[in-house]
Design a protein that fits this description.
Blueprint: H1 9-27, H2 32-53, H3 58-89, H4 91-94
Helix pairs in contact: 1-2
Length: 97
């Protein structure tokens, strides 16, 4: 996906770097499902850290926990839906039989 005025190219470059690492791991023989689970775990861990680092106390973090969960799960769902729709529309091109 090309960068837009709202989303800078650096966003996609960072995402591509993570995807490249996951693809290397699969290419080195790691099961695709295991790599997927690891990347999902890493995203959750990093997002928890990012959320925690934005607070001054555990109490503040706890108070915002539900909001953070709602935000991150809504973002993930929207992104996953967008990419699944793209794969449905381009299945023959993206997925080799």
């Amino acid at each position: 996906m090309p960068a837009s005025p709202e989303i800078p190219q650096a966003f996609f470059d960072r995402a591509d770097a993570v995807i490249a690492l996951a693809n290397r791991q699969v290419g080195q023989g790691q099961p695709r499902g295991d790599v997927s689970a690891s990347t999902l775990y890493a995203a959750a861990r990093f997002n928890a850290f990012t959320t925690a680092a934005a607070h001054r106390s555990a109490e503040g973090l706890a108070a915002d926990k539900a909001e953070a969960l709602e935000y991150f799960t809504a973002q993930y769902r929207a992104m996953l839906e967008e990419h699944l729709d793209d794969y449905v529309a381009n299945f023959e091109r993206y997925v080799q039989a």
